[in-house]
Amino acid sequence: MKKVINMINPSSIVAGVSLVELKKTEKALGAIFPDEYKELFLETNGAKIGDWTLFPIQTNETAPLSIDIVKQNQNRAKNLPEDMICIGEELSGEKLCYRIRKRFMQEQIYTWNDKTGLDKYASLSLSEFIDWQVPKVNTDKPSILGSFMVESEKLIVTDPYYKVDEDAELQIILSNVKNGSWTASVSYTPDEVVKNLFVYYGEKKPSGKWHICDKVGVDSSQAGVFDIEKFGIYESIQFEDGGVAPELQGRVVLGGAISMSGYGDGVYEVKVKYNISKKVVGVMVNFVNEE
């Protein structure tokens, strides 16, 4: 389910619902959700996937929603088959549906619209449907996140939720760094998990050998490399701020770059590259051990 969460637009992820709220919704709809739907909604109450939106569930913690899954099915189109439950819709109004069999919603996903009616099933499961809707990254080629400026001759490699020196053993501070414009990119494993975060001076990766530097600790499933003076301006640099493309799983911020940290929290190896003047011109955070 974590892979599915990573594919969802981060700005649409909210607090999940409780099992009690799921059961209450099932009772109102007269059918039981598939397990993967329940697992997803325990993590986030509704979501945006490309042009599709999954309807949220009304909870006791929120004000009455104008659109929720129960209301959508109470006010359903007259020609929608009775054995279908709408769980989401596309911008054009096309509906995403589960089919009911003996009070259980089946895992297959169907699409329906008012003009053409019910299409054959769109995918074998909700997770497969989400996977199809999200643009795929090229795992063989690093994706460029953008560029940022280094002006202090120092970089800090850290979990973006830490403060400078908050836990020095889990942070790395690099001195004698080449000032100027730096580029950030990420590479991926075959299952589209971030494998490496690269930052380097200029627009082209520097040649030469990577040198093992140290290890960085991660507690928020994110890691970044920042100009230390710009990082220190803020109590923390929030990964969620701004439009992070979920397919890239990273972005540049003022004076640095952030990415998801592979499969989650842990301690990860950091390597650096030097130019002929012994200045740091490249940093790599390795999130996946290939051994």
UniProtKB/TrEMBL annotation:
<feature type="domain" description="Knr4/Smi1-like">
    <location>
        <begin position="16"/>
        <end position="132"/>
    </location>
</feature>
<protein>
    <submittedName>
        <fullName>SMI1/KNR4 family protein</fullName>
    </submittedName>
</protein>
<dbReference type="Pfam" id="PF09346">
    <property type="entry name" value="SMI1_KNR4"/>
</dbReference>
<dbReference type="InterPro" id="IPR018958">
    <property type="entry name" value="Knr4/Smi1-like_dom"/>
</dbReference>
<dbReference type="InterPro" id="IPR037883">
    <property type="entry name" value="Knr4/Smi1-like_sf"/>
</dbReference>
